[in-house]
Task: structure prediction
Amino acid sequence: MCYNHCMAKQDLIVSPSFLSADFSDAAGELGKVMSSGVDYLHLDVMDGSFVPNITFGPKFIADLRKRTDLVFDVHLMIENPERYIGDFADAGSDIITIHQEATRHLNRALAMIRECGKAPGVAINPATPVEMILPVLDMVDYVLVMSVNPGFGGQKFITSSARKIEFLSSIREKEGYSYLINVDGGISEKTIRTVSDAGVDMVVTGSAFFRSDDKRAFVDRLCNMAAGVR
Ligand code: DX5
Ligand code: ZN
Result:
């Protein structure tokens, strides 16, 4: 199966990050994402505490939800995310990803996401060892490896994240887990081969996607490069 309607054989999922969109024309920017042929939209929620930036909350997501059937891949960069899981579920999220570093009760928070009927994801910052999430790997649908320090788009890819992807890929095979491995931060034509060679299933792309004049061609290039077509 091939996502993103690209010609590549490998089923790389591309999830454009709305953080790099012009929020004053949210509907227009959403239309550009939809016409690029992707199936997912990455929505970065920031609280000014867990990360040094503030974005938007459930109302913005609910308003976007009225205009699209894209899979909403909601990345919560907020402290104690369990306080808001119900609100983000009601807003129309499909995937809700929370940070290991943001809650004392990661297992409980991930279970809450599942109980809301949503797909749970766990994220780890660049300085967090991947071993920190070993106890929850059997309860998540997505693992998000941060390849920049969260908070802003347009940062440089941190190469050590590739080793985490390799580890997550090999332990999934060994233990029979079923999560998809996602990577977020600094993904472009320059870095896609590093993460695809490491075994990534899905990539978030913000600044590189939104600065592309032909977004469909950009997505196709990422898919093709991930599949080894140059
Ligand atoms: C950063 C966000 C990312 C961001 C990625 O904290 O989680 O999703 O939008 O942007 P780029 O692709 O520009 O690194
Ligand atoms: Zn993100």
Summary: Residues 161-175 form the longest helix (15 residues).
